[in-house]
Design goal:
heterodimer; A: mainly alpha; 15 helices; about 0% strand; B: Rossmann fold
Chain lengths: ~375, ~400
């Protein structure tokens, strides 16, 4: 199941320190003297830019053809898309960056898990668990001051996300059940739990619509830029990304995590690392970060729990994490890119009259192009370097 | 924010639109409340203008020099954006024409609720010469975003087609005082946010009369989706209409909990048919076909049973089993609302769309008319007139904030 990058690592011969490409290995390379590192580094940097450009060109071409086939003006649609994402400071801050927040956080959750060899496909369910906890705390703690309530909401969503990861983690470590299946199943439980909550115990006090009452003012995240919709969640996402980057690269735990991710057996034999423990910690941490994504969405943006809160962020996050080469700082960039894509997609509907379904197709094309080119790079490197 | 008292005073269509083509029937214009335009105090207007200026500044482009450096768009991207922008031409902002937008949470190809709204938007474009735009939103987070985008693009009027938009609409209404938002089936009111309430109860009351007149067993059934107040209201009215014709009629009711669950709806319909019901009405979306199918199968067994359509004219959907439909003419309501907005009559109160403007109606299926006694058709027509005049009270379940009976 794992091993999508095992080959590249084995070829390099420097054991566990290397990882799946992107920026992370370049810095690891510095601490491990090895012939040709400097040259390879430059080539690889160049390569990732090339891949991004290639994906852009490929998607633009395919998208243009599709739009033209659908009877829409490709140039007009592209202009609307760019305008919707980067057209003004307001659209960039209030739409693109706001949309990137849950994608970055869930992307970090996925990247962390994948680095440890945990295939956590359950970010979506963990996100809903975190959102439900945030809504519940934000509703019941209305009497508390903001200084207490906001941290309580965030901690609650972290905890709920981690709790949602306990079952798959336990089944993986103790029973050997593949977490791909269990996390997907937990997604359904999480999504339907949220639906039940807004139809049942947490439904708004009038009992009319399937949503919760608005959470207390004191439970809401402050705006990062006054006058825009950009909230503190974006700063939180950056902090989590920086924290993960440092932990992965500099700490002992980060080393163990990467070791287990590359090969649990080797980690046990060569490093006497308890793979099971590392896996469980990673799994719970990953779940907690995904839960935070849901909590931040509630306390920063929607202020109430809804049935269809997430348009599948937990799944898009997988594409975000893979595009970023599982590098935490790369996830931030990839998250903003996907945020821009979605923001632009909305504008494509509004300004160019492209129907939603068509927009979804173009979005999927971008993801496919990026993933295909990324894979191409890896295959080439495995054979060539 | 919302209000009791004067705020929730109902508005109706047509006031102050003399001689506008497209109105149906001569007595529509006569039977309206002439609503006085809102008079703002100087203080109010000033505050609103200041708020608007602040909001406008927040959403329009800052001169590049003024933006804090860390928040600026990366230069290459900006260049790319500008390049594409110039290459493809900026959107033309024709002065004078109004800008109207529609938000839906589902595809406008559904041949029902959303399709009706889209048709309304297109008619607003044709009949009022408006610049129009539509976006299909997927999540609550997108609701705010869409309002923001339309407000900063200079749109005047946004139709948010569903109660799910109401909270975001209230937030956007505060932030963009120049924007007017109409929320279909909404329950909250603000200065520039108005719920558009379709009084489908009036249609289902007439359907109830038809059902009670046609039943032989004396048992009729109702199959609903989610038991939200507007849906429960249509069933209360159906029951009342039935009892007005036949006081001893027995009425079965079930809510499946899902507008689109075909299997659950079929099961519920079959259960009611086997309990002796011989006229079924529904309040479902895609699952309504299951009710028609259940009735069709009962007919194949030799029983004389009928189904009633709801929400849109479904007479053509299953002409072999449908007696008639309680319809909402959403497009008409949208065009009328846009006209009212042009006269400054939208905002601060709920807008009711009812039989009075012929937005709500009951239409017998022409294919079934042979089997319907002419006295019934006449009686339903008479009741329709009484409802329009306001002399026949149709029960409804209240759900608008500040309205009597709502918490």
């Amino acid at each position: 199941m794992r091993g999508c990058s095992g080959g590249a690592v084995a070829d390099r011969g420097d054991g566990v320190a290397d990882s799946r490409g992107g920026g992370s290995d370049s810095r690891d390379g510095g601490s491990k003297p090895e012939g040709g590192v400097a040259g390879g580094l430059r080539v690889r940097r160049f390569e990732s830019v090339l891949i991004a450009l290639g994906a852009l060109v490929l998607t633009a071409a395919a998208g243009a053809i599709l739009l033209a086939l659908g009877g829409h003006h490709p140039g007009e649609a592209a202009a609307a898309m760019v305008r919707g994402a980067f057209g003004s400071r307001a659209t960039f801050l209030s739409i693109t960056l706001v949309r990137s927040i849950p994608l970055i956080l869930a992307g970090l959750a996925v990247a962390l898990a994948f680095r440890a060899g945990v295939w956590n496909i359950g970010a979506e369910g963990q996100l809903y668990a975190g959102a439900a906890a945030a809504a519940w705390i934000g509703l019941t703690g209305a009497a508390l001051p903001a200084l207490v309530l906001v941290p309580a909401v965030l901690l609650g969503s972290l905890a709920a996300g981690a709790i949602w990861a306990i079952v798959p983690a336990f089944m993986r470590v103790r029973l050997g059940v593949g977490e791909v299946i269990t996390t997907i199943l937990m997604n359904f439980v999480g999504i339907h739990l949220a639906a039940w909550l807004v139809h049942g115990p947490l439904q708004e006090s009038r009992g009319v619509f399937p949503q919760t009452d608005p959470i207390a003012e004191a439970a809401r995240l402050p705006r990062l830029v006054p006058g825009s919709r950009l909230h503190l969640g974006f700063a939180l996402a950056l902090v989590v990304a920086a924290g993960l980057a440092v932990v992965l690269r500099r700490s002992r735990f980060g080393f163990r995590l990467r070791a287990v991710g590359e090969s649990p057996e080797a980690a046990l034999i060569a490093g006497r690392i308890d793979a099971g423990r590392v896996l469980v910690v990673c799994f719970l941490l990953s779940g907690a970060i995904a839960g935070l994504a849901g909590g931040v969405e509630i306390s920063g943006l929607t202020f109430a729990l809804y049935e269809d809160l997430s348009p599948g962020w937990g799944y898009t996050a997988i594409a975000v994490a893979l595009l970023a080469g599982l590098d935490p700082l790369g996830v931030v960039v990839a998250g903003i890119l996907f945020g821009a894509l979605q923001a632009g997609a909305g504008a494509m509907q509004r300004d160019a009259g492209v129907p939603a379904a068509w927009v979804g197709v173009v979005e999927a094309l971008v993801i496919l192009a990026v993933l295909a080119l990324d894979r191409l790079r890896r295959v080439r490197r495995r054979g060539g370097v | 924010m919302a209000g009791g008292g004067e705020r929730s005073r109902p508005t109706a269509f047509g006031g102050g639109v003399p001689g506008v083509p497209g109105n149906r029937g001569p007595n529509i214009r006569g039977a309206v409340n002439h609503r006085q335009p809102e008079v703002y105090s100087l203080g109010d207007g000033l505050a609103a203008r200041v708020r608007y200026a602040v909001a406008r500044r927040a959403v329009t482009d800052n001169p590049p020099g003024k933006a804090p450096p860390m928040l600026r768009t990366p230069r290459p991207l900006l260049l790319l954006a500008t390049g594409l922008f110039l290459a493809c031409g900026a959107p033309t902002d024709d002065e004078g024409s109004i800008r109207v937008a529609l938000l839906t949470s589902g595809p406008v190809s559904d041949a029902g609720w959303y399709a009706g709204a889209y048709e309304g938007l297109q008619r607003i474009e044709q009949e009022l010469g408006a610049t129009v735009s539509h976006q299909q939103t997927a999540t609550p987070a997108e609701f705010d975003e869409a309002f923001l985008a339309y407000a900063s693009a200079g749109y005047d009027l946004v139709f948010a087609h569903g109660n799910e938009y109401q909270d975001a609409a209230i937030r956007a209404g505060e932030q963009f005082p120049e924007l007017t938002i109409v929320v279909s089936g909404g329950g909250r009111i603000a200065e520039n946010v108005a719920p558009l309430i379709f009084r489908l109860e009036e249609g289902s009351y007439l359907a109830g009369m038809a059902a009670a007149a046609m039943t032989r067993s004396g048992i009729i059934g109702m199959v609903g989706g989610v038991a939200i107040p507007p849906a429960r209201g249509t069933f209360r009215a159906f029951e009342a209409g039935a009892r007005s014709v036949r006081p001893d009629v027995e009425v079965l009711e079930v809510f499946t909990g899902d507008w689109n669950d075909v299997a659950a709806a079929k099961e519920a319909a079959v259960a009611q048919l086997s309990r002796g019901a011989d006229v079924l009405i529904h309040n479902l979306d895609a699952a309504s076909f299951a009710v028609f199918q259940a009735v069709r199968e009962a007919r194949a067994e030799g029983r004389t049973v009928w189904a009633l359509g709801m929400n849109s004219n479904q007479n053509d959907v299953a002409p072999d089993v449908i007696l008639g439909s309680a319809v909402i003419r959403i497009a008409d309501a949208f065009v009328e609302t846009a006209r009212m907005w042009q006269n400054g009559e939208v905002g601060g109160a709920a807008i009711y769309a009812s039989t009075r403007q012929e937005v709500i109606d009951f239409v017998f299926n022409p294919a079934a008319l042979d089997e319907v006694p002419p006295e019934l058709v006449e009686r339903v027509a008479e009741a329709r007139v009484l409802i329009r005049e306001g002399s026949l009270d149709v029960p409804r379940v209240p759900f608008i904030e500040g309205e009597a009976g709502v918490q």
